[in-house]
Amino acid sequence: MAKIFCVANQKGGVGKTTTTVNLAAGLAKVGQRVLMIDLDPQGNATMGSGVDKRKLELTIYDVLLESATIAEARVKSEKCGYDVLGANRELAGAEVELVGVERREKRLKLALAEVAGEYDFVLIDCPPSLSMLTLNGLCCAHGVIVPMQCEYFALEGLTDLVNTIKQVHANLNKDLQIIGLLRVMFDPRITLQQQVSDQLKAHFADKVFNTVIPRNVRLAEAPSYGLPGVIFDPSAKGSLAFVEFAQEMVARIQKM
Ligand code: ATP
Ligand code: MG
Prior knowledge:
- By secondary structure, this protein is an alpha/beta fold.
- It has a single domain, classed as 3-Layer(aba) Sandwich (Rossmann fold), CATH 3.40.50.300.
- The protein is 41% helix and 18% strand.
- It has an eight-stranded mixed beta sheet with strand order 3-4-2-5-1-6-7-8, with helices on both faces.
- Helix 8 links the parallel strand 6 and strand 7.
- The longest helix is centred in the middle third of the chain and has 18 residues.
- It is globular and about 50 Å long.
- The structure holds adenosine-5'-triphosphate and magnesium ion.
């Protein structure tokens, strides 16, 4: 049965999508069966996996509105080695359309139950908000991966996310836990980043992943080629770090 992880942080531009697609590609590389779900109307994780969001006939939107199953809506990304349940602008409407609908926060969980046996990992790229979409992700996940930059306000932003996760854990999903904080876009030459990294370890101890993702221009260039960095330039420092992170995740789930 697949282990399901949300990549979430309500702060924008912190590296959620980069983490999702590169972890997916890294896991595929080490032999894991992966489904990547794009839960963001921006559709960046879809495009970044080589799937054209404008040409998709069925997306996560249809799954949430129960007009399609995941088996019908997913597509295979041959180049990346994992399956994609894509998203596009249409998904922005789901938020409103789900208002007043029964068990609206459980839609994704129910849909996933049908295909979970086909995968080792399901990774969900969340939008930069704590919305109904993110809630659908949190309701079906075993854990949350929180990418963060080691900057001054990083810890402050974490409080809201941690509280939301606690509430979902208490009321909707007993399985949910923070699997770990992933330090991304890290530059060890910047003293402040080193200090915040030390603070993170002091506060969150083993909830901080061992792997650190460096700031690396190849990771930023890859999406314009419709590829995760791990596939676009496998020998780049950032790509090697994501494969290492994939191995750390495989080791973590053995202990779950
Ligand atoms: P949003 O909140 O809008 O969904 P996000 O949290 O998904 O954003 P990304 O889109 O992954 O963030 O990353 C933001 C920007 O930073 C992108 O331009 C991406 O290419 C770049 N980026 C992410 N990680 C790295 C890295 N390790 N090194 C260099 N650039 C990076
Ligand atoms: Mg994103």
